[in-house]
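Two entries, shown back to back:
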Amino acid sequence: MELARFAGVPTFMRLPALTPDHPRYAEVQLGLVGVPWDGGTTNRPGARHGPRQLRDHSTMIRALNPVTGVNPFTTVNCADLGDVAPNPVDIHDNLNRITAFYSDLKARAITPMTAGGDHLITLPILRALGADAPLGLLQFDSHTDLFDTYFAGHRFTHGTPFRRAIEEGLVDPKRFVQIGIRGTAYNTDDIAWGLSQGVRIIRIEELFDRGVEDVMAEARDILGTQPSYCSFDIDFVDPAFAPGTGTPEIGGPNSYQSQQLIRAMAGLNLVGADLVEVAPPFDPVGGTAWLGISLMFEMMCILAEAIKS
């Protein structure tokens, strides 16, 4: 309340911006990180601009979640840890940069809340957080991102990260739940491969038929008490509410249903989360980013409680 929200240099949630050489960096428990990179995008780029717009809109976020009663900023020590410096012309160098950044966070016991970037960024994050043992994974998305290759055998796109994560032993496929899958398809190879590995794939029709409470009860049961990660693709939300994304799919949940799903993650042993694929060029007004940062706040509340416990 000492500075108007429209003033000053924007940081995530108006938190202090800290670098590793700052004396208080060692006190951070929940770190917000931007990954401004979309080199894995196969069609409509723009998610590289997501973290900047999300930061700007985050100045509208207040401190208390009135539904859950959680104030993440007083529950744990939070800070904006800046962006992973991107290499926009080299996919593998960029993946390595992301893994190195998050490996350092893991070594410092900092739980990351990430703003992407396209969905390929989740793979190098998992390479850091899942290096010691495979994680459970809860994915909110229109697409499985379980394809093998794109464009003459290319294995690293935003449509392949979770296939690579399973193959690399970063994610336990039997503790992997995907919610919201829908849209037209090239084929069903991704679905068939995921099911063969043990991934629980919940299509949007099943979510709407069963309801949030029932589906999330199953998801919590599958993930159990072992360490898990949450990845939220903004295209999970219907494009009527989130048009600013590269691969929109109609027939999705609304904003409130998305909040309900995230709040129902309470009690999971989460070691990190991300929100990806906000592409400001497709929504210059910024409604998608406002929804995205609001959902990030909901995830911060869940992560803060997980850290405290």
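entry 2 starts here
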Amino acid sequence: MKKSILFITYDFPPILSPESIQVQRRACALARGGHRVHVLTCCEDPDFEFLDQQLCKDHENLTIHRVNKLPGEKWLHYLCGGLEITDRKFWWKFPAAKMAINLIKEFKIDALYTHSTPLVNHLAGLAVKETDRNLQWTAHFSDPWTLNPYLSYRTGLQRKINRMYERAVISRADTITVTSEKTKELFVKGLNADQGKIKVLPHVFDPTLYTRRKSTPQKKIIAHTGNIYGLRSAAPLIEAVHKVQPKNLEFHFYGRMKEEERQLAERKCPELVKIFDPVPYLESIEVLSEADILLVIDAPLKDSPFFPSKLADYIGAGKPVVALSPLSSTTTQIVRDVQKELLVADSADVPSISALLRRLDSTEPAPLREEGKAHYNMNNSYKNIHESLFNE
């Protein structure tokens, strides 16, 4: 039976973000499956966001509803950023919940889906659920909330308030979806969440975006797309490249990098490591299509639960994936599942990275397993999304 679904998501095309791209793929999968999908998102010109109109897609079963821009919206971002309750978009909970309640009545919505980040989407969903306890609510977490090692709170009170909201969402949502088994385990052990209602819904790629390779360079191109920031570092790789001086490899980085790491690359291996400006998303897919090997760099976090969305795009390109990641991470597990050989080295271990570079320099890595790749294809994800939304 086809149903009517409401997505609450601040990030949606034309916003350029991993969350925007992934939630659109889920919405489109359900629309193609015959469900009537309504997406409640932000205004057309939100502050602080990069926009890319090429990301927008239409479908006859997909309707976009936008919350009007509020007076002083930019200052609300600054105010809420200081509060540290969910995130700097905390203010969006109130107009989003109000509009969602009206849409549910008008279009006779059967199911509600909230997607983070930003986390405030779940608070809007919580407010909506309070008005209709029979509404089927799925809350999706791309990353953990209070257990996220990248997040820190200035005071214990702020952590306490966020933990209170987090427990309320996890308790009252009918289904919780996460991107990895490790995140599921984190929720169960760290938050006493009901294991039975948590499902793994991984990031997916769009197979229609990839192109045939147009050129064959003399060296094997190892490409990385996206910014390297926070706890992630390219420095160990740069040191390893300088040490090994591979003859058949060239590294291309598309995105922002810490200035000290950029200078390190320019000083130690300028001919082997080339750094380019960020490119639009669809151009980044062309970069993946042209490369020989694709590189993901994770922070050195033991048992890291994070599933980088770029890894799904890498898998879609069908190229061998090299992961600089802790051996106990979600990234390592995914690469192990999709690849015939494990091309992984600890992201902070220069000797291990050096050994991996020598291996790549002298041999041709095997392609991905087709059956492993298919698991992350958006065209094969409809069943999992449908089951998560309707608990069927």
